[in-house]
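Observation: inputs received (chain + flavin mononucleotide).
Thought: call the complex predictor directly.
Action: predict_structure
Action Input:
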Amino acid sequence: MSPDPATPARRLPPGLVPGLPLTALAPMQDVTDLAFMRVIAHYGAPDYFFTEFFRVHTQSRPERHILRAIDENTTGRPVFAQLIGEDLGHLARTVAELLHHPIAGVDLNLGCPAPKVYKKNVGGGLLREPGRIDEILGALRAAVPGLLTVKMRVGFDDLSSFDHILDLINRHQVDLLSVHGRTVKEMYRSEVRYDAIARAVAAVRCPVLANGNLTSATRAATVLADTRAAGVMIGRHAIRNPWIFRQCREQFAGRPVTPVTLGEVREYIGRLYRETTVPGLAERLHVNKMKKYLNFVGQSVDATGAFLHAMRRTESESALFAVCDAHLLADPGRIFAAEPYPGVIARPNCETPDPAPDGCSLETITA
Ligand SMILES: Cc1cc2nc3c(=O)[nH]c(=O)nc-3n(C[C@H](O)[C@H](O)[C@H](O)COP(=O)(O)O)c2cc1C
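Observation:
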């Protein structure tokens, strides 16, 4: 479909390095807040950020803590505001509210696999109803004067509606599509269907970001070559390795990828602790919050999972950092593995088929 001549040209913000494939930090509830965005930007920002999802329903107002990631964004990189919901009027109302904030665009969540979410027919649940997606995209396209983006999985329990939904992406002139190459039922741990991402790239007119298990810059480059996507979106592996976006740019430019040392990882953990310090937050709760990030970091510290084992048993700031020092500063020049060590699972106790009941949670979304 050629662009409507009445519609002013909508352009995606340029990437940090013109000509290179795009990179984006995947939206992650309870993770991609202002503090985490700042930390990531320190080690090499992605081209684009996406907020955690704003819940949209009759009584909803844009959540203040998510708005902070937009209003106080000092990373220098654009942030898209993600919405989850299905009520056309309230989606339009929320867009109108968000337009008072410096957003790069509005992103629709068509992927959240939490049963409590999809049973309300929002997030991944909408993939069962392409007719409803058609209405929602129509309402959003009318409400969003700038960039409208979509993040989707490849289907609910199979790919039977995938091509139809890709047609809707074209029909409503979506400006950027991120595809997590799993169905809703496949949750977070199955093989990723990069062939389906390639199918989306071939079908839609907008750029596509490939998402799902992009564990390293090398892996990202392979998936880009296989799918011909315009860029990559990376979530959990950016928690493990916040240098990954800088490394992607090195890889994509054909330069050697700068490895990370354990000493640098220790510095990252200290920075994460400082940035996530909130007045009044009890030390024990802060330590617990840190453990959620460190579950991912630990996948590349040692092949035996010894760091993870010790880290999980700590209950105070001093104990946590004593474990970090013992495992990361004994040989600070040792290389932090570019890929997770095989079999080192982020949180084996939580390898259950269902994620958190009302959303996505670091407690449960692991390896
Ligand atoms: C803790 C966590 C929270 C998430 N929250 C969201 C969210 O708010 N919106 C969304 O579209 N996807 C969310 N996701 C899915 C990610 O954006 C991404 O699609 C998924 O993790 C696969 O990418 P990865 O293998 O690079 O992590 C979440 C994932 C995790 C691990």
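Thought: report the result.
Final Answer: The pocket of flavin mononucleotide is lined by residues 26-29, 31, 52-53, 82, 109, 111-112, 151, 180, 211-214, 234-237, 360, 362, 365 (CB under 6 Å). Residues 283-297 form the longest helix (15 residues).
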